[in-house]
Amino acid sequence: MSLLVYGTITSIILALYAVGFSLAYGISGLANFAHGALYILTGYSVWSFLNQLGLPYFLSALLSVIIIGFLGFALYWGLLLRVRGVPLAELIVTFAAGIAILELLMWKGFYGIQYSLPLFVRGGVKLGEVAVDYQRLFVIGTGIVLVVLLYLFVHHTKIGLAFRGMAQNERTALSVGIESDWIGSLSLAVGSALAAVAAVVVLPLGVMESAIGYEVLIYALAVAIIGGLESTPGMIVGSFIIGFGQVATAKYLGPKWMIIVPLTAIILVLVVRPSGLFGQFKELEERI
Amino acid sequence: MEGNTILKIEKLSKHFGGVQAMLDVSFSLRQGEFLGIIGPNGSGKTTLVNLITGFVKPDSGKVIYQGKDITGKMPYNIAGLGIARTFQMVRLFYNLPAYKNLIIPLCSSRVKKLRGGKYGERDDVAVDLLDDMGFERDSFVPYKLAGSLPHGYLKRLDLARAMALRPDLLILDELFSGMAMSEVASTLPLIEKFHEEGLTIIMIEHRLKELFRVVGRVMVLNYGQKIAEGSPEEVMGTEDVKKAYLGIEVEIT
Amino acid sequence: MAEVEARYRKKRLDRGIKARADTIFAIASYREILYLILPRALPVIILLSLPLVLPGYWGKVLVYACIYGLLALSWDFLASCGLFSLGQAFFLGIGAYIAGALSYYFHWSPVITLPIATIGGGVISAALLSPVIRLRGVYFAMVTLMLPMLFMKMIETTGLLGGTHGLPALKPFPKGWAGTYLVIGVFLVCLFIFRRIINEDYGLVLRAIRDDDRAVMSAAINIYWRKIQALFVAGAVGSFAGAFMTHHYQFVGMSAFALDYSILPVAAAALGGPGTFAGAALGSMILVPLSEALRALGGMRIAIYCVILILSVIALPEGIFHYIERKYHQFERLVRVG
């Protein structure tokens, strides 16, 4: 039973990590490998507002989400714009930017027990014999809400449709009046903001440090790839597979083994079935 | 001079997404034959070539070459067995000199076995080949960058690239498209010469006048199916063929 | 008659000496011979003499630069046939651990472990990466990025091969300078051999695979086998660097798979100019000393070469080497238009 509860919680956390990344990468075709860096940056931003400017928690969080959203926007115009169309260059450039951010944070000394965000509410509740704190419930709630919103947005709004159009065939999208640059930067901005929301909700569960940024990127990538890039249900399934895989691994092999799950998953999926479980991008598979 | 069956296609079918690009197409080809394949745009001609040469795997059906089943084999294996093709959209390396484009087929294991494409010889062999194709060696045309050559030359370069493999079966996919009359007039004799030397050729063309002058047999495709087969006159007289190319008469009342 | 404003454009012309040196008659004149030999001999002379003049610390930096240089050359070789690797650390780590394990458990000397690690590393790299060579560029890159991370974590969690502590006190090279000159020598040899290969027929086929693999397939060439060969070569070079590093520092640990070893070679090649090998070499010779000079800044250096990488990709895709090469062979002047 506890496995079920922890598995679900972990899976939803993973889905939260992946939601912003999927929006930009899976749905709009923009690789934002600075995703993990933006996640951690949000944490430090909230921390700074909270502890150095003395702002109320909610305000700090809100401001941070907005700032990170803008940063995503700026990332598009500053970096991605210049390498659009070459997916590899997009990956390298955003990844390098992410590394730069994470290493700078580490260099400035942002690690240690004092760098943590307070829980929203203390206390918890019991589900069966399993104790679940309110923060985790909050995480679950936010996760479900965001995933549902993502699905509705992507499949039922005009802008969502524009995002998908861009990923599938940019030329056609352009010729039907979708301004790919604005849409792209919007997609990246929203994706970053989603990463920020995830950070705000999940970071209080532990201590912040740059290494988490790399992990979040790996988790988000794993979920996106396993599930298949274009598909939101795929993202959900992917996060549950990895989530439960992680919890099972932690229980039977030990917590140190947890990160190996997404790493292996990425490699295995790309070898065996590159378009993922629900993927529709068949060109990812062998060309012949 | 025609001999045994060199190529046998049995009920080849392929669909892409919702489109049935090829449905139960069968035909056979004897060694030394010159077969023309015609049909309106989108009738599956290039798909047929891709299916034969291994660039696309069929959903069902068989491709049998020189008695061996080559269905679904890799393109480089099929080329290694002696089937060479040209591409409708010319696939050349424009930033290399023309003759360097031929080095690549000359590096293949097939050529190493046959011609002795040995290291050091390839440059000369490549230039010789181009000279035979009408790229005047004395004017240094083979040494020009492929990107700077006019369209007709590019098509002939593509042909040279295919011939560099010393194929037993040559498939030409709309070689003459985009060529001027003079270029066609200078390339057609080359192809006839290859045929006389024993090469089996399949030629896909839209320029029917030139095609009918050289081919012995014609096959017509429409919407992925074979609708006629026979000599040029027989085929052009068939109702279905006329409908496919020219449409049907409609009475307006 | 209205005055038309004078406009100028840049016109580039080959230097006279280039035209003269292109033909066989270059050997008739010392000036032309020097023109041809200088750019090739200069780096050799400089690199071979530097260890004699540099103080201890910078001598170490030179060795470090050659290690990274080998990784950058290996990256460039793979990139030449269309395989973009973000996991050079993988080759380094494999070679490092093969040599380290052989030395630690069997006490074999570098003379034996180095060749075994080089060849073995090449074989393992090619074998492990061959399932993914059919993938599109980005996805191949992702797998190469994940592999060293995976291996690092596996060593950390299983504790095999020394685990987090690594394998210490391994056999060093016989004399101090033997190691230094070995790595410089191999680095220079690789540079010249790669540059030679890429212009030969073999290299032409590799580049053609990068540019249009279907055309190459229709020319009866098994592109996947060629890519595997390239993986073997690149893997062997990277593994050599790793094995060398193990014996030079007499230690091997999980840090051999660090992200740093994957990123800097790419930055070096991007800075110097991808596809030229000389660019990759030049880039390493610039970035490694630079990063050592900035060592005081700690994590900041990684941030800096990430920034350099970004700038190189965006602003200077051709790389420094092409610029230098162009300047050497051509001169510019302003020509009036209209």
Helix % of chain B is: 25-40%
> What is the general shape of chain A?
globular
CATH superfamily of the domain at 1-82 and 199-253 in chain B: P-loop containing nucleotide triphosphate hydrolases
SS element count, helices of chain B: 10
Could you give the distance between the termini of chain A?
46 Å
Tell me the radius of gyration of chain A.
Answer: 18 Å
Q: Identify low-pLDDT runs of chain B.
A: none
Strand order of the largest sheet of chain B: 6-7-8-3-9-10
Helix proportion range of chain A: over 70%
In what order do the strands lie side by side in the largest sheet of chain A?
Answer: 1-2
Rough outline of chain B: globular
Number of strands of chain A: 2
Low-confidence stretches of chain A: none
Measured by DSSP, the beta-strand proportion of chain B falls in 15-25%
Order of helices and strands of chain B: EEEHEEHEHHHHEHEHEEHH
Structure commentary:
Chain A is mostly helical and 288 residues long. Chain A has eleven helices and two strands; from the N terminus they run H-H-H-H-E-E-H-H-H-H-H-H-H. Chain A has one domain. Chain A has a two-stranded antiparallel ribbon with strand order 1-2. In chain B, strand 1 and strand 2 form a beta hairpin. In chain B, 36% of the residues lie in helices and 25% in strands. In chain B, helix 3 runs parallel beside helix 6. The longest helix of chain B has 16 residues. Chain B is built from ten helices and ten strands. The model of chain B has no long low-confidence stretch (mean pLDDT 87). With 338 residues, chain C is mainly α. Chain C has two domains: 35 residues, no CATH class; 204 residues, no CATH class. Chain C is built from 14 helices and two strands; from the N terminus they run βααααααααααααααβ. Chain C starts with 6 loop residues before the first strand and ends with a strand. The chains are: A mainly alpha (288), B alpha/beta (253), C mainly alpha (338). At the A-C interface, helix 3, helix 4, helix 9 and helix 11 of A face helix 6, helix 9, helix 11 and helix 13 of C.
